C-alpha cells in the first residue's frame, strides 16, 4: 500500500516570528527614512543626471601625469608595507605578553588587550585626522595611522593564534622542566609561524586599500593625488586614478592569496 508523502509545513509559531521580524524591519526602515529625510525613490527620479555625470564627466578615464601618479602609487605601497612590517614586529612582542598561554603577569595581559581593542576599533581615518592636527599633512601621518590600527588588529590576531596551540605540547615541555623562553622558541613559535605569516599578508592587503582612504584625507600617497583631481573638478583624471587603484588592489589581493596558500600548504 502506497503512502502519500507530504511536505512538512512550517510551524505556525515560526510563521508568526518571521512575520513579526519582517514587520519590525519594515517599521525600522520607515522610521530611519523619515528621521533622515531620505527618499528611496530619489535615485530613480534622478537617473538621468546620474548617467550624464558618469558618461560625460567621468568617462573616459584619463591619466594626466604619469610621474605624479607613479610617485603616489609608490608612496602608497611603501606606506602599507612599512606600516605592516613595523606593526607585525611590535604586535608579535605584545601578543606574547597578552596571551593567556605566555603572559608573565595577568594585569599586563588585560592592559595589552584593552589598548589593542582601542586601536582596532577606532578607524584609521579618525587616527589620520588626529595625527594631522599634530604633524600636518604628509606621508608620516598616513604611516602612523596605518601602524596604529594594524597593531591593534595584529595583536588580537596573534594572541588568538598563540592561544590555539595545543596544550599537550606545552605540558610535555613543562614535564621536562623547560623554561618559558624555551617553550616559546621551541613549541609556540614553530606552531604559530604559518598563522603569523598569514595574518601579516592579510594586514598588508588591507593596508593597501586603507592607505588610499588615509591618503585622501591628508595622509599622502595616491589618495592625496586623487583628492586633488576631485577638488579641481578633473573627474576624468580622478576616475583614471580610481581604476588604477582598483587594479593595484586586485593584483595585491591575488599575490597575497597565492602566498597564503604557499605558507599554509
Describe the fold and architecture.
- This protein has 265 residues and is an all-alpha fold.
- 82% of the residues lie in helices and 0% in strands.
- The protein is globular, with a radius of gyration of 26 Å.
Helix and strand arrangement:
Blueprint lengths: L11 H25 L5 H4 L1 H12 L7 H33 L7 H16 L2 H12 L3 H25 L3 H9 L4 H40 L2 H10 L3 H30 L1
| Portion in strands | under 5%
Termini gap: 56 Å
Number of helices: 11
Helix percent reads: over 70%
Shape assignment: globular
- Uncertain residue segments: none
Structural class: mainly alpha
Helix-strand pattern, N to C?
HHHHHHHHHHH
The overall pLDDT, averaged over residues, is 78
Q: Rg to the nearest angstrom? A: 26 Å
Largest sheet: none
Number of strands: 0
